[in-house]
Task: structure prediction
Amino acid sequence: MHQCRPGHAFGGTLSVTLDTVDVREDSELSHGLLAAGHYVRLSVRDTGCGIEPEVLEHIFEPFFTTKEAGRGTGLGLALVQGIVSELGGAIDVASQVGTGSVFHLYLPRSYEAALRTMETVLSLPRGAGERVLLVEDEKPLMLLAEEMLAALGYEPAGFIRPTDALDEFRADPSRFDVVVLDYLMPEMTGTELTKQLRTLRADIPIVLVSGYEGPVLLQQAFSAGIEHVITKPLALQQLAETMAQALAQTSTH
Result:
């Protein structure tokens, strides 16, 4: 009999069920409060290794992962919980080491606000595999932006050092379709990096990300040839719409 080890895959059974439940009073689940109401319940059950208790309590924390360095961002489950919570639902998890786990996702059945939110997410403009040069000097924010871009259908390549990104771009300026970069970085600002990128390829669309906005920033951006500026924290809808606008303008030139 195989012994379970972190990061090692084994055979087993995975079952997915969908049903409806009526919750008569507020309930405390393993990872969230479920308010009384009518829900659709998506249940995913496996007969795998199970999750150890000390790991189970952290699985929805951003950047928490049991994988080896470089093999996971620890953002997948955090994003799932964020979406479920935004829709007004909650998640319940039960697991036994050596036996398996079950995840129950509760989503509101009839709240109009939740339905409107889902419609908004589904209607967001998406990419078609366009390659994105992403530059963000704070690694957690860079990894989060990578996850968001990938979720929107893009292929991001993230860098935390502007000079490394510039070297990558210089090696093959035609490799990337669009650039997303932070404004304030230790080696050079986003507008300074933009000027160097544009000497290598003048038509590359660039999206500038900043923790603040104002006329001075906009003037610097426009002077560098940047027409698209978005603010932190990144919102999926804002990012999706700005990426689509930047690529659409390029295709019309």
